[in-house]
Design a protein that fits this description.
Elements lengths: L3 H4 L3 H21 L1 H25 L6 H16 L6 H17 L7 H19 L1 H6 L4 H26 L3 E3 L3 E5 H22 L3 H29 L14 H21 L4
Antiparallel strand pairs: 1-2
Helix pairs in contact: 2-3, 2-8, 3-4, 3-6, 4-5, 4-6, 5-6, 6-11, 8-9, 8-10, 8-11, 9-10, 10-11
Length: about 270
């Protein structure tokens, strides 16, 4: 009879990596401030490197230095809660990227390269910065943990149910291994995980379930988007930094979509 480690590929590597990384992420969220900013900056730096690797596979040449500066801008603005600077900062970023690429040399491809540079900044820096915006809310520590719980519960349940019971492909052209069975079970897992943690933290059930459901759906869509990026670049993983998981984009792709959606839900529910 097959052991669980034979049935589930790289299960032990995924478990060890999660066992090491999860306490670090939770501790950074709990403390907030500089520790969380530093953690997100490190993840974003690794993510930019992986994104640029994919972009070069598509034939683009993004400017990594400008991407790093743009990511730093969004993270610092969120950390300092400088909402009024978001639009001026974004305008300055767009103008700088366009000018830099137009003066960089490859004039025929300059606009496409500039668009790819901007996409890298928005996809990684802007979307990830919403974790800091959530953390800055009243009870933001708890809400951020709820978003993480929803994403992680969704991922774990969808992974195991998909491998054992998955029969109907969710999106065969993008990610053949994902199934509707796994996605639906993942949604249930995300809602259940957030509701359970919300109860332990003393948060309203309505907010916990709303966050759990919306972040679960958003996270699964984010996972599909990253799968599409990898497929178009012809690679299996975005990187190899996290054993058993692949790269930072492979592990945190769901969070890039779940964080802004979670923030929107909290604003709608009056958590600001």
């Amino acid at each position: 009879m097959e052991s669980n480690f034979q049935r589930f590929p790289k299960l032990w590597l995924r478990f060890v990596t999660a066992a090491v990384g999860l306490p670090i992420v939770v501790a950074a969220v709990w403390w907030g401030g500089a520790p969380l900013l530093l953690l997100l900056a490190l993840l974003a730096a690794a993510g930019i490197g992986e994104f640029d690797g994919l972009a070069r596979g598509w034939g683009f040449r993004p400017l990594t230095v400008l991407e790093g500066a743009g990511v730093a801008l969004f993270l610092i603005l969120a950390h300092a809660r400088m909402e009024s600077w978001l639009f001026p900062g974004m305008a300055a970023l767009v103008m700088t990227i366009l000018l830099a690429h137009l003066l960089h040399g490859r004039r025929l491809e300059a606009v496409a390269d500039a668009a790819m540079t901007l996409l890298g900044v928005l996809y990684i820096g802007f979307l990830l910065s919403f974790l800091l915006w959530i953390r800055s809310l009243p009870q933001g520590r708890f809400y951020t943990l709820l978003v993480l719980a929803a994403v992680w519960s969704t991922d774990a349940v969808a992974y195991f149910v998909g491998l054992t019971l998955g029969r109907h492909p969710l999106s065969p052209h993008i990610s053949p291994r994902k199934s509707w069975e796994g996605a639906i079970a993942g949604l249930a897992g995300g809602v259940g995980g957030a509701a359970l943690l919300g109860r332990l933290l003393g948060l309203p059930v309505s907010i916990s379930m709303a966050l759990g459901g919306s972040c679960s759906v958003a996270g699964q869509l984010g996972d599909l988007v990253e799968s599409a990026l990898k497929r178009s670049a012809g690679v299996k993983d975005s990187g190899g930094l996290l054993p058993g998981h692949g790269g930072v984009l492979d592990r945190f792709d769901a969070l890039f979509f779940a964080a802004p959606v979670g923030y929107i839900i909290l604003v709608i529910l009056g958590a600001r």
